[in-house]
Backbone:
């Protein structure tokens, strides 16, 4: 089986056919789909979707790109929602959180404020984190080290080998998806081919980061096996072996995935 460790199934792009998209993923062998929240306004929706769709689970967090509209009180709401979700087998961790140094105009200090508060929350509840690390790998890693967090996923990883090794050394897994299917994406393909298999998890970031065969189209979680075939080819592995390995890695990164029966 495969696991999509990052899929925004709550996005408006899926409003017309969300159940069919989830069913197609299940039919393709994607047994688990992790739906991370991005802000207070979608906490309830990601939870509801996870309970309605076969194999879906959810994480709760405030995305760095949503910090301009977020209120400080949203952190209190998040803490209460997380505590209330601890008994829910479909709840897997804190995410999507992190920092974004790519999008212009985002207040870095405000991003850091929300990131730091959510790291404390993950530490206090002993939960893994799903981190947004776009052009911010070093800063995100610094926060993880400061709070002693050693479990989770660096989503859509696109840093250097040195940064990859630093995240791995901190105990995190690295998320790879559609980007590695583009032949011109030399750095990502080198990372995906050469990093220890034990460090890699699969993801789509659907509806975004579509693979090469869906360039500029909507991405969907049923693409994980085909993306995995490309990764397996880069690594000289059989796709089944890659599926087995990356599934074990996802369970290590997000241990609460094991609470949900097949």
Residues:
């Amino acid at each position: 089986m495969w696991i999509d460790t990052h899929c925004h199934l709550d996005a408006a792009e899926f409003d017309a056919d969300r159940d069919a998209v989830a069913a197609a993923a299940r039919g393709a062998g994607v047994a688990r789909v992790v739906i991370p929240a991005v802000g207070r306004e979608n906490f309830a929706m990601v939870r509801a979707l996870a309970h309605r769709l076969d194999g879906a689970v959810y994480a709760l967090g405030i995305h760095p790109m949503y910090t301009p509209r977020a209120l400080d009180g949203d952190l209190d709401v998040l803490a209460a929602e997380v505590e209330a979700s601890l008994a829910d087998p479909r709840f897997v961790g804190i995410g999507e959180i992190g920092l974004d140094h790519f999008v212009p105009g985002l207040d870095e200090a405000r991003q850091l404020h929300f990131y730091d508060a959510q790291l404390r929350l993950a530490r206090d509840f002993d939960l893994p984190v799903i981190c947004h690390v776009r052009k911010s790998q070093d800063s995100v890693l610094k926060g993880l080290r400061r709070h002693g967090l050693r479990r989770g996923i660096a989503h859509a990883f696109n840093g250097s080998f040195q940064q990859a090794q630093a995240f791995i050394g901190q105990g995190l897994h690295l998320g790879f998806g559609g980007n590695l299917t583009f032949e011109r994406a030399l750095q990502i393909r080198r990372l995906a081919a050469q990093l220890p298999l034990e460090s890699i998890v699969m993801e789509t970031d659907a509806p975004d980061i579509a693979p090469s065969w869906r360039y500029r189209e909507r991405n969907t979680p049923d693409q994980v096996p085909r993306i995995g075939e490309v990764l397996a080819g880069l690594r000289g592995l059989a796709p089944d072996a890659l599926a087995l390995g990356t599934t074990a890695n996802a369970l290590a990164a997000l241990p609460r995935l094991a609470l949900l029966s097949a």
Q: What stands out?
A: The chain has a mean pLDDT of 97.
